[in-house]
Design a protein that fits this description.
The protein has about 425 residues and is of the alpha/beta class. Helices cover about 35% and strands about 15% of the residues. A hairpin with an 8-residue loop joins β2 (about 50-55) and β3. Bound molecules: N~2~-sulfamoyl-L-arginine and zinc ion.
Length: about 425
């Protein structure tokens, strides 16, 4: 009998760990810290009964801790807020149902053809990239970077009107965080416009090469598509010693690794930094692109969601900014203005660490270790969190594109034909 009850409780425990998001009856609760100590308190929150799932940690003062809570645990969460003098908000009852109202269920679209304004499967995305490369061989090359942890092939899209001139490079990646679907959608739209828009050849591609990696973390991306229960997964899918999965790719880069804003617990759903820097094949691939192109790489942008932020180094600390901060800040503000002129919402612009300090991000690595002069994390969309409605992609992607055009124009103005003698030597030796 004792053994049976252990078994039953074990199964129930396991069920609650893996299945809780499946339950449509769970509510979304938000808890708001209003000072630094409260931020730390909120981020220590844990439910001993495992009936509350932390969806998102607080990223700073007035940024909420988001919880998914079983109906009979709402009072536990409320009490936690009361005890710590935190604002409590029951944001949405039966949050699970929201998934179906804002996004179509992935399964239903298996047989549909690819659309740039849809959230597409990784396979459909790969097929699209191959098609683009076939249709525009004079502009596009695909470079196989390697395989993800689960063996998915990862390809870099290189768009260049003049691959041999040694143009400055803009490198954009997206989708390191699995649940942030709008980011890969943005990267694909960028590829679409740069290769289809006749104006792009005259402008964006004139003197600048664009390297785009639309889905850095395909295993995580496919996991979030596999069921409603997994929709809010953030990390990679590598397996650690215990029974826990994944590393936060944006805490895994080898610059000031793990000095702030990370978890050391592999079972933490959000910010586990990994067993060592660059433990993940996915972050290794991005690192390699940066290092191989270090000299020509002038702008790096990592696309994420949510909240409309455009932030620059340092991310690992909010105590100071690099001496070059003003240039990055003012370019970000011009980008934001362009998006606004196109009808979009403005970006909040600041250093990432002033927003909330978190080390091991790709933006800090690009700027601090590789020496890329302009480096950003771009957080897209406001108002829908991670479930940005597919039907709105048509509206926002073209607006954001106007921001990317401003980025490109600045890189062209500042770096076109400004190769150092060493740079031209290496270019001519390639041509030889
Ligand atoms: O925390 C992150 O990794 C990014 N936000 S997200 O909600 N998409 O997870 C922000 C990263 C900013 N950059 C650094 N802290 N280095
Ligand atoms: Zn992210």
């Amino acid at each position: 009998m004792a053994r049976l009850s252990v078994l039953v409780f074990g199964i129930v425990g396991l069920w609650t760990q893996v299945c809780c998001l499946e339950n449509d009856k769970y509510s979304l609760i938000r808890i708001y810290p209003t000072n630094g100590t409260q931020v730390e308190t909120t981020n220590r929150f844990q439910d001993p009964e495992h009936l509350i799932e932390v969806l998102k940690g607080s990223r700073g003062i007035n940024d909420s801790l988001d919880l998914l809570v079983a109906p009979h645990r709402i009072n536990y969460a409320r009490q936690f807020a009361l005890n710590n003098d935190l604002r409590f908000e029951l944001k949405q009852k039966e949050y699970g149902r929201a998934f179906e109202t804002v996004e179509r269920v992935p399964r239903r679209r298996v047989l549909r053809s690819f659309s740039i304004y849809d959230y597409n499967s990784y396979t459909a995305i790969q097929d699209y990239l191959e098609t683009v490369a076939r249709r525009h061989p004079e502009l596009v090359t695909l470079q196989l970077l390697g395989n993800s942890y689960q063996g998915r092939r990862v390809k870099l899209v290189k768009i260049s009107a003049n691959p041999n001139t040694g143009n400055p490079i803009v490198f954009i990646d997206a989708g390191i965080h699995a649940r942030e679907w709008v980011a890969p959608a943005m990267a694909l739209y960028l590829i679409y416009r740069l290769t289809n828009d006749p104006e792009a050849k005259q402008n964006e591609l004139n003197g600048v090469d664009w390297y785009i990696l639309p889905v850095v973390n395909p295993d995580g991306y496919e996991f979030t598509r596999s069921s409603k229960a997994n929709r809010l997964w953030r990390k990679t899918r590598s397996k650690s010693n215990g029974n826990c999965f994944g590393v936060d790719g944006n805490r895994n880069y080898g610059f000031k690794w793990a000095v702030s804003g990370v978890s050391n617990n592999p079972c933490d759903r959000e910010t586990y930094a990994g067993p060592k820097p660059f433990s993940e094949p996915e972050t290794q691939m991005v690192r390699n692109v940066m290092l191989e192109n270090a000299k020509r790489l002038k702008l790096y942008i990592s696309v994420h969601s949510y909240g409309q932020y455009l932030v620059y180094p340092w991310g690992y600390t909010g105590d100071f900014v690099p001496k070059e901060w003003k240039k990055m800040d003012s370019l970000a503000r011009s980008v934001s203005d362009a998006v606004q002129r196109a009808g979009g919402k403005p970006f909040r612009v600041m250093s990432a660490g002033k927003w909330y300090p978190a080390a091991g991000g790709s933006d800090d690595f690009a700027f601090g270790a590789v020496g890329v002069p302009y480096s950003y994390t771009m957080e897209l969309t406001e108002g829908y969190e991670f479930l940005f409605p597919e039907r709105l992609l048509k509206t926002v992607l073209p607006q954001f594109y106007e921001g990317f055009r401003v980025f490109g124009a600045q890189i062209k103005k500042e770096f076109k034909n400004s190769r150092s003698p060493r740079d031209s030597e290496s270019v001519s030796s390639i041509e030889d």
